[in-house]
TrEMBL record:
The keyword DNA repair does not apply. The chain crosses the membrane at residues 7-28, 40-60, 72-89, 109-128, 140-163, 175-192. Keywords: Membrane, Transmembrane, Transmembrane helix. It comes from Eubacterium ramulus. The keyword Transmembrane helix applies. This is Membrane protein.
């Protein structure tokens, strides 16, 4: 039988709080103009409640709109980083840690090629969206741009934002892209040290 320690009890409680806080925030978004509690959502997710919040998004708040995009990007990035921290804490890692990123990529050229292609594609898609915005044509969905970034194209997306001066007023890009990059670095660090 599996015994729960203090950490597991803490995670259960903080994620139950995360579910409740996200539910309240979701209802406030739907029924008020300025009643959101995004600061509390941020604090609770940083304290470990991101899994509960992600569960609420998947079950009850699937519709992505501009108003909730930043919190979604933040919660997903924090959730993935927290999973990796938990795995490291529980001892699921190599005996010695390494930061030899280049050696890792040289040994896995297909991954390096994949990331290169994803970043190029993401940059091109951002450029197309910028051209469409200037010509007042149909735009590429935010979810598509962020999805490409999550799939490995975050560096290409960040370069496009600042090189093309596109989406620089949107926090889910200007703050979200660096967060996605940090998440990618943490994931790569963990994979290198499994």
């Amino acid at each position: 039988m599996f015994e729960l320690g203090k950490l597991e009890y803490y995670l259960l409680v903080i994620n139950a709080i995360g579910v409740l806080v996200y539910l309240i925030n979701m209802l406030l978004y739907r029924h008020t103009v300025n009643g959101q509690i995004d600061v509390i959502v941020t604090i609770v997710s940083l304290l470990g409640g991101s899994a509960g919040m992600l569960l609420m998004i998947l079950l009850f708040d699937r519709k992505a709109v501009k108003e909730n995009m930043m919190s979604r990007v933040f919660i997903i990035c924090i959730f993935i980083i927290q999973i990796i921290i938990l795995l490291i804490y529980k001892g699921h890692h190599a005996e010695h840690f390494t930061l030899a990123f280049w050696k890792f990529f040289v040994e896995r050229r297909i991954l390096l090629i994949y990331l290169g292609i994803m970043n190029l594609v993401t940059f091109i898609v951002f450029a197309i969206d910028k051209a469409n915005a200037c010509a007042h044509r149909s735009r590429i969905r935010i979810v598509t741009l962020l999805g490409l970034s999550f799939a490995g194209g975050s560096v290409g997306g960040l370069i496009a934002i600042y090189l093309l001066h596109h989406k620089t007023q949107k926090d889910y890009f200007t703050v979200g892209m660096p967060m996605i990059i940090i998440m990618h670095v943490v994931v790569l660090f963990y994979v290198m040290n499994m």
